[in-house]
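WARN no homologs supplied; continuing
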Amino acid sequence: MKFFNARVWLIIFGVMVLLGGALNAIAAESVAQDAWGDVDGQALDVAIAVEVAWGSILAVWGASVIVIALSLQHPRGRARFGAISVVAVFLSQIVAVGALSNLGYGEGGGPGFAIAVPLIIAIITLISCIRDWNAATASTPARAASLARR
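OK structure emitted
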């Protein structure tokens, strides 16, 4: 198996997003207190709701990536879907954090090491998908056999 296997890395990426989102939703209260600083009362309730919603959306997105990565049989389609998904997930997170930072989100400090591993996984996944962007697809078993011999 090659290292830059788009299907494998998409599944790893999907599991990471699913688990990260689920943990964010489950631990919403502590995440909200860490990310929003000194808030209490209704402001804390809103912050917790934001974290639950954010985590739930990420968990569903991760599950969708896993299911689609397992369902798509053609390497080219899987690679194109994967590249677009990785970029979309990270762009949406950058936009969300950027919009919320104007309201005081994350003033206690940057994400630091917590973002390093997901970023590395996302970059490897993106590279894997870009490498297979124009992968040959086999429409018949005979065609698949001839491609495998090359």
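The CA atoms of residues 82 and 117 lie 18 Å apart.
OK
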